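Field: COMPLEX_INPUT
Field: COMPONENT_COUNT = two
Field: RESIDUE_TOTAL = 414
Field: MODE = joint
Values follow.
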Amino acid sequence: MTFSSTLLENAVNEFARLPGIGKKTALRLALYLIKQPEAEALQFGETINRMRKEIKFCSNCLNVSDTELCNICSNSMRQKHLLCVVENIRDVIAIENTQQFNGLYHVLGGIISPLDGVGPDQLSIDALVERVKKEEVQEIIFALNPNIQGDTTIYYIGRKLKGIPVKITTIARGIAFGGELEYADEMTLAKSISNRIPIENYIEAKN
Amino acid sequence: MTFSSTLLENAVNEFARLPGIGKKTALRLALYLIKQPEAEALQFGETINRMRKEIKFCSNCLNVSDTELCNICSNSMRQKHLLCVVENIRDVIAIENTQQFNGLYHVLGGIISPLDGVGPDQLSIDALVERVKKEEVQEIIFALNPNIQGDTTIYYIGRKLKGIPVKITTIARGIAFGGELEYADEMTLAKSISNRIPIENYIEAKN
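Field: COMPLEX_OUTPUT
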């Protein structure tokens, strides 16, 4: 692209460095900001930079936070003895959006994946084991993506927790609500049969 | 969306105000910047804000510019007597990318469109007429989008220029290169027939 302005060119390049933003979209975004009132456009950059400078990771669960302890961990209404283990911050937001979980989280910061060079040491697994011991956690729910890496991570952490009296569960894998049996892959269908649930539980869950 | 951090929430809202960016994409972009090294992430916001604060509009052609006069208008290698009239900055970039035009531009800042409430007074039409008179322009090429609004704008400006000895042309409308006749709309096909070009010109243009 040929630009008559280096200022514009630099801004377009910055936008285009973001994931999923190509050059043409980057140009559209930069020109949009040029047309906005100056105060509003400057607020954009300042808000982004303020976030980057001031954001913290909760010292307890490693979720993003404005304060030392995030507002989920510091909320006295939430069950301290129930821990949901997730891969990343996005998963915390997804589960919070369901409004169905009232415990605390533990963000691993990734998932064991030797092919991508991610081993257990890069994840907050030791911190998780410490928390379980110290905070008298009664149940850990693994909410990891249903794939080989997720299962490996669950298996590895499960072994680390051996001997500690804590109930370990995982979110159900099965046919998605609204999904169709004939289009489900064999693995999912097989697991949904072997992990079948008593009809009473199913009806209970629906009410 | 439920956020555990107001800093993150504000950043997501800022991204989501941009055109074509939804909440989920905004979250992805904000989290990407959180994971980047601080210096690189801060550079993002600072580059955008610097652009917004310092960018100017060329006093001659109204294109975006770092300086009072843009680097196209101040380039002594370009033909001063050939003017390409475009709707907006994006069109300047599109034409510059072809590397086929060596004159100057005039950015109207829009197109006459009564339905959208855009009249001639909101566009830089008077400035264009002034330029044509003052700078002894020999040819004006209209490079406007081929639709009713574009044609109205050409007609309106054409009338304003009456009596001034300047050649007025418009970029060719026709079947796009690589396009197929049978899928072209009737209007385009009709225009491409009525504006047919001598074979010598066509062969010349291809070489």
